[in-house]
Write a structure and sequence with these properties.
single chain, alpha+beta, 3-stranded antiparallel β-sheet
Amino acid sequence: MDLHPGEKVVLEGHPSWRSTLGFYALGLVVAIAVGAGLGFGVSTAAGIGAGVVVLLVVLAIGYVRRMATTYMVSTQRLYIRRGILSKHVQQTRIDRVQNVNTDQSLWQRLLAIGTVDFDTAGTDDSEFRFVGIGSPQKVVGAVDLAQHAAASSDATSARP
């Protein structure tokens, strides 16, 4: 991402690997089922091989899905980029952020992940959310730091 003049990155990252545990668990079940089916139907070696291949494909897909989403908080903007081949970019100015809310279910609290939801001025149709974030309170702190940096930068540039 291209930064504007004077803009600094406060926080940048991807969803936590813990946020994809459900996907990995389902993939493991599928790998075991495929391996067992081929193991009983064809041969043990074919079953083990197919199970390992399915498991590796699931791990690769989970990794790519997670890394294809980037979240960033800078001193001027909030930024979400999703996708590899096609990209969807969502951004808003940091001074438009009015409220920052976190949401964690019991399971998410145990995994130390959650969702950070931003309410922005002038937008009522789009959701601006960082989903599957490790330590959502760090994101809230980063947004607070960015807002203070933006406010002090505006105050400094407003002086004669």
